[in-house]
Amino acid sequence: MKKLTKVLLSSLVLFSFSSIAAEDLQTKLIIQAIPSSEGTVVVEGKPQYEKTFNVVVYSKAKKPIELTGFVGCYKAFDEKGKEFEGRMVQADLLGTLKEEAKEGEISFVSDDASVYNAKFVKWSSQCPNLAKHPQ
Q1: Strands (E), the chain
Q2: What is the mean pLDDT of the chain?
Q3: Which one, 67, 69, 97, 107, has least CB within 10 Å?
Q4: CA pair distance 123, 83, nearest whole angstrom
C-alpha cells in the first residue's frame, strides 16, 4: 500500500509540475502565425475544414524550452477565444527550443467553417491527446 501511495503521489506531483510548466511556457514564448491556406480535408470519411499557418516560435527564456506532446500542443484561436485543434504539426516546431527560432507549418481543423476565422496560434497544456511518457 505504501508503494502504491508513493507511485500515486509522485505521479500527481509530476503531472502538476508538467501542467504548471506548460502554462508557464505561454509567458516565455513569442509565436508569430501567418495564414498560408484554407481548405478542406476528409479524415476517415469525416469531412473537416482546415486552416494552415506558417509559424515561427521564439523563446524569451534563457534556458532551453521543451515543446513536446508530453506537456502541450499548439492551438489556433479566433478573436472571441474559440479554439481549434491541430491536425498536423511540422516536426521542426517540436523539440527543444533554444536561442534560435523554430519555423514550420501547422494545420488546424474544425467540423465547420469557423476555423477560417482563426487568427492566432498559442502553446497550451489543455490538449485532448497528450502523449504519455514511456514507462
Answers
A1: 29-43, 46-59, 65-67, 73-77, 83-89, 95-97, 102-110, 120-124
A2: 83
A3: 69
A4: 11
Model's pTM, two decimal places?
A: 0.77
The three grid cell numbers given for residue 130, joined into one nine-digit string: 497528450
C-alpha separations of 38 from 12, 109, 110, 113, 135 in Å = 40, 10, 12, 10, 39
Query: Phi-psi region for residue 44, left (φ > 0), alpha (ψ -120 to 50) or beta?
Result: left
Task: Give, in order, the Cα–Cα distances in Å from 59 to each of 2, 3, 18, 25, 44.
Answer: 41, 39, 18, 9, 36
Residue 7 and residue 1: Cα distance in Å, rounded?
10
**Cα-trace Rg, the chain:** 17
Instruction: Starting at the earlier edge strand, list the strands of the sheet with 102-110.
Output: 29-43, 46-59, 102-110, 83-89, 73-77, 120-124
Amino acid in the structure at residue 59: S
